[in-house]
């Protein structure tokens, strides 16, 4: 995206859907369709060949799940963003898509203007979940602890540092309590933000406070050990 244009790969098993989507994107100056795929296997291959900025894909493909394709793309090409465009308002699929690294999940019933705006927002690094899915996602996260599963990405030491961030402690204070150097704590904070996909220590602390409030307990307990 060197010239301000987002390169798009379309993945859908229906040729007529891809043709319709291409016509929508071809009407713009900043969105360029660089490839199409009708299967999960071809989607992965086309990503490597076409080097898109954004992959717009359906959940249901003849040889697999679009969510699995999303996960594979994010593992191999983490900079590429993915937008799920589907006919199904499936909350479980929505949660799985978020877990797989999707930047958005919207329904095919959106109009052309909404679709274009969603793709542009995804291209800018935002997350897009169209109504009523955004509300469904928020409620699902609150009710089943989806957000807390991100904690599985952290090591024991990182969890202890995060716990102290949630208490509003500075790096210096954390270093003193954990008998670490300031630089080591700074590195832990950086790793935590990367793993939790967050931009600041304030965001991470807020997240940690929310998880603790839902579980009514701070985490991890100081005597928590790995198996």
Task: Give structural notes.
It is a single chain. It is built from 10 helices and 8 strands. With 227 residues, the chain is of the alpha/beta class. The chain has a 6-stranded parallel sheet with strand order 2-1-3-6-7-8, with helices on both faces. Strands 4-5 form a two-stranded antiparallel sheet. The longest helix is centred in the last third of the chain and has 15 residues. 30% of the residues are buried.
Write the layout of secondary structure elements.
Elements: E1 6-11, H1 15-26, E2 31-37, H2 40-50, E3 54-57, E4 60-61, E5 64-65, H3 66-76, E6 81-86, H4 91-100, E7 104-107, H5 112-123, E8 128-129, H6 133-144, H7 156-166, H8 171-178, H9 182-196, H10 201-215
Parallel strand pairs: 1-2, 1-3, 3-6, 6-7, 7-8
Antiparallel strand pairs: 4-5
Helix pairs in contact: 2-3, 3-4, 7-9, 7-10, 8-9
Question: Spatial order of the strands in the main sheet?
Answer: 2-1-3-6-7-8
Q: C-alpha Rg, in Å?
A: 20 Å
Helix content: 40-55%
Q: What's the shape?
A: elongated
> Which series of helices and strands comes N to C?
EHEHEEEHEHEHEHHHHH
Q: How far is it from the N-terminal to the C-terminal residue, by CA?
A: 45 Å
- Give the biggest beta sheet: 6 strands, parallel
Unreliable spans = 216-227
Overall mean pLDDT score?
Answer: 83
**Discrete helix count:** 10
Number of strands: 8
Short description:
The chain has 10 helices and 8 strands.
From the structure above, extract its key features.
single chain, 227 residues, alpha/beta, two-stranded antiparallel ribbon, 10 helices, 52% helix
């Amino acid at each position: 995206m060197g010239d301000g244009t987002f390169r798009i790969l379309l993945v859908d098993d229906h040729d007529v859907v891809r043709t319709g989507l291409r016509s929508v994107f071809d009407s713009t100056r900043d969105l360029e369709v660089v490839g199409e795929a009708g299967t999960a296997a071809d989607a992965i291959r086309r990503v490597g060949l076409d080097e898109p900025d954004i992959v717009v894909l359906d959940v249901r493909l003849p040889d697999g799940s679009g969510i699995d394709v999303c996960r594979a793309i994010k593992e191999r090409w983490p900079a590429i963003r993915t937008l799920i465009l589907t006919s199904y308002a499936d909350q479980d699929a929505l949660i799985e898509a978020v877990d797989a690294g999707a930047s958005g999940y919207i329904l095919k019933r959106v109009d052309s203007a909404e679709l274009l705006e969603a793709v542009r927002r995804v291209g800018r690094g935002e997350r897009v979940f169209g109504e009523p899915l955004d509300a469904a996602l928020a409620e699902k996260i609150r009710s089943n602890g989806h957000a807390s599963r991100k904690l599985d990405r952290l090591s024991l030491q990182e969890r202890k540092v995060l716990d102290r961030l949630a208490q509003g402690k500075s790096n210096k204070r954390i270093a003193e309590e954990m008998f670490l150097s300031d630089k080591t704590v700074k590195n832990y904070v950086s790793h935590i933000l990367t793993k939790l996909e967050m931009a600041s220590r304030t965001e991470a602390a807020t997240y940690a406070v929310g998880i603790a409030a839902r579980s009514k307990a701070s985490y991890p307990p100081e005597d928590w050990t790995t198996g």
